[in-house]
UniProtKB/TrEMBL annotation:
InterPro entries: CTDL_fold, Kinase-like_dom_sf, Prot_kinase_dom, Sulfatase_Mod_Factor_Kinase, SUMF_dom, SUMF_sf. It comes from the Bacteria. Residues 404-422 have a biased composition (Pro residues). PANTHER family: FORMYLGLYCINE-GENERATING ENZYME, SULFATASE MODIFYING FACTOR 1, 2. This is Protein kinase domain-containing protein. It comes from Microcystis aeruginosa NIES-3807. Residues 14-306 form the Protein kinase domain.
Length: 675
């Protein structure tokens, strides 16, 4: 066979260099066109050629294009032989990823020495739902899903491959090019026993497939498996699906086994979606949750997944109230998410990996994708903090974006005008003008501080805030002594001047906030800064941070309640272009402090607590014991890759003290006498 073909889109010759895979349908080859593979069909019949031409012309919007990530290996260009006959197509090569098959089952994870945890799997599931939502927005249907055809990298970003099997339709003629194949275990009941090639499928069929994929991710196996109580041998999986029998169907023919993971460990809303998908959806397929419903619910559930505090790889839903994985290990002596005790973990430096991401903001700008190795140890503890809308980010080098024609977002109703920030009604806040002063650092670098008067404020969120998490409650009065706080987050120039190094991943501007720093790194900076200045510098306590952030307001943000104004005050996922920005470019709060929301998360002095019950009322750091270096720590403020909800004044985040991500920074506080 010929090894040279013409790329129709670029009118250039493409040479096949090394065979990568071979199936009954086609061969896949490496090529001399960097970053692209060629799929050469054994029999490129006319229907297939027409379908390819349509797919090249009509791509769906890629929800992760702004992250320079490929969410689906879509046909890029037709390939022709020297007689102008279509033989196949070029598609982007996906590197640094593993198949979902290896990632979501405990046995495969052990076999391939991959580590993950339940938090990361929530993020992956959410991102898959966002990708499938984008495909459905285009009017396309996957028609077939295999775990082998979904790849995931160590930033929680999935890629769907084998996209030329999708069902696509011509928006002008209405012609449908069907999906000709299906996979056992992922075919909905109404299509079992039917010749898939004869069916015009709808996204309702994909809803079932998506539910199965998400179940695999969160529970480590297929949903239609349990303890058979009927006569004879257990039914085949396809027959169980056809009858709607799974361990939580309520039918006594199939019940949970002693290894079946209960649904109630999930966030209640996520629990309800599975019941809708497999119970109600069995009789009424159109009632199955949509991809968007899965995406939104997984994001809400993800925000309530917390570390267990005993084993570093154990995360569980706050709503469940305890660590199911510790419980399960105690009962079955098999750990689905094996890890180390927290005491062991905190003494070991964490690997420096870019924080992950979340999807569905659709933006644009092409750029090649740098290859990445799959990190085995702590593969996935890279999630800085996502957000709804885009699981985010290769911050090793450059950020990505790749999609020529994203779909137009649906118009959103304009919210009512937001009130101006409400000054706190507490009479003890007698705010006058903050007192600025400047520290001189080595190399001619300066550090601007703002002295704040003592005062009292309401810390946390009221029950009336629909976005408030339980860890922001109960709202309570706190008295804060006078202190000074950085006018800006610590910059790369300041960190370099004090520490002699710059660990940041975004080093394009010395006035960008320093990031990729752990709590321990921030503590070391404060100690050295104290030596240089002769004053006492430390991290702000959580209470001091929120007091300074609010600047006398009681609204959700320090500028009011309207999240649509956030872009005037903060760099967040909606305007950051997936990177940090120089400090002080946005509007300050009422006390002249900049970047209190967005840009980078800011470490605080306190240990993490799940709510404010028993919290100090004097503004001091809430620590678990005198030596708090080994406990999980708090971060505040949101970052460049978070949604507005995470940039609220009361929002709280946590991480291990040795962890450093490309969206973790800090600002300093000073408590020396005379301020």
């Amino acid at each position: 066979m010929s090894l040279t073909y013409r790329c129709q889109l670029q009118n250039r010759l493409i040479t096949l260099t090394q065979e990568l895979a071979n199936s009954g349908e086609a061969k896949v080859w490496h090529t001399n066109f960097n970053g692209y593979l060629a799929k050469i069909y054994h029999n490129p019949h006319n229907e297939r050629v027409d379908k390819l031409q349509l797919m090249v012309r009509n791509r769906p919007g890629d929800p992760n294009a702004h992250l320079n990530h490929i969410s689906f290996a879509w046909p890029y260009s037709i390939l022709e032989d020297n007689q102008g006959k279509v033989v196949g197509f070029l598609m982007p090569e996906v590197v640094g990823s593993e198949t979902l098959l290896k990632l979501c089952t405990p046995i495969m994870r052990r076999k391939y020495k991959l580590e993950t945890n339940w938090y990361f799997l929530h993020v992956v599931a959410r991102n898959i739902a966002a990708i499938i939502e984008a495909i459905h927005l285009k009017g396309y249907v996957l028609g077939d899903i295999k775990l082998e055809n979904i790849l995931v990298n160590n930033r929680a970003l999935p890629t769907i491959i084998d996209t030329d099997s999708f069902q696509v339709s011509d928006p002008y003629s209405g012609k449908i090019y069907r999906c000709l194949v299906g996979s056992e275990g992922f075919t909905p009941a109404e299509l079992i026993g039917v010749n898939i090639a004869d069916v015009d499928q709808t996204e309702v069929h994909d809803r079932f497939r998506l539910g199965v994929v998400i179940y695999y991710l969160l529970f480590g196996g297929p949903p239609f498996r349990g303890l058979w109580q009927g006569g004879g041998d257990s039914l085949e999986q396809s027959e169980l699906i056809r009858r709607g029998l799974w361990p939580f169907s309520g039918d006594k023919l199939l019940v949970p086994s002693n290894t079946t993971i209960p649904l109630n460990i999930l966030h209640p809303d996520l629990h309800a979606l599975f019941l809708r998908c497999f119970n109600e959806g069995h009789k009424f397929p159109h009632r199955r949750p949509t991809a968007k419903e899965w995406c939104d619910t997984l994001e809400a559930a993800r925000q309530e997944v917390i570390p267990c505090g005993k084993v570093d790889n154990h995360y569980y839903s706050r709503r469940y109230g305890k660590c199911y994985w510790c419980e399960r290990f105690s009962d079955l002596n098999f750990d689905i998410f094996p890890g180390k005790s927290i005491a062991t973990v905190t003494s070991t430096p964490s690997p420096k990996v870019a924080p992950p991401p979340p999807p569905i903001s659709i933006k644009s700008s092409p750029s090649p994708i740098p290859p990445q190795r799959w990190s085995r140890r702590k593969v996935l503890i890279t999630f800085g903090l996502f957000t709804v809308g885009t699981v985010a980010s290769n911050i090793f080098a450059q950020l990505f974006r790749q999609n020529p024609t994203p779909p137009s977002p649906s118009p959103r109703p304009l919210p009512p005008p937001s009130p101006s920030p409400r000054p706190s009604s507490s009479a003890s806040i007698r705010f006058t003008k903050p007192t600025p002063f400047t520290e001189n650092l080595p190399n001619g670098v300066t550090l601007e501080m703002v002295g704040l008067l003592a005062g009292q404020f309401l810390m946390g969120s009221p029950d009336s805030d629909p976005d408030a998490a339980s860890d922001e409650k109960p709202q309570h009065q706190v008295k804060v002594n006078s202190f000074a706080i950085g006018k800006y987050p610590v910059t790369q120039a300041q960190y370099q001047a004090v520490m002699g190094t710059n660990p940041s991943l975004f080093q394009n501007n010395p006035q960008n906030p320093v990031e990729n720093v752990s709590w321990n790194d921030a503590q070391a900076f404060c100690r050295k800064l104290s030596q240089i200045t002769g004053k006492t510098y430390r991290l702000p306590t959580e209470a001091e941070w929120e007091y300074a952030c609010r600047g006398g307001t009681t609204t959700r943000f320090y500028f009011g309640d309207d999240a649509n104004q956030l872009g005037d005050y903060a760099w967040y996922d909606g305007n950051s272009q997936a990177k940090t920005h120089p400090v002080g470019q946005k509007k300050p709060n009422a006390w002249g402090l900049y970047d209190m929301s967005g840009n980078v998360w800011e470490w605080c002095e306190d240990d993490w607590h799940y709510n404010y019950i028993g919290a100090p009322k004097d503004g001091s750091a809430w620590t678990i014991n005198n030596d708090n270096r080994s406990h999980i720590k708090c971060l505040r403020g949101g970052s460049w890759f978070n949604l507005p909800i995470l940039c609220r004044s009361a929002y709280r985040n946590w991480r291990n003290p040795g962890v450093d991500y490309g969206n973790h920074g800090f600002r300093v506080a000073c408590v020396s006498p005379g301020l």
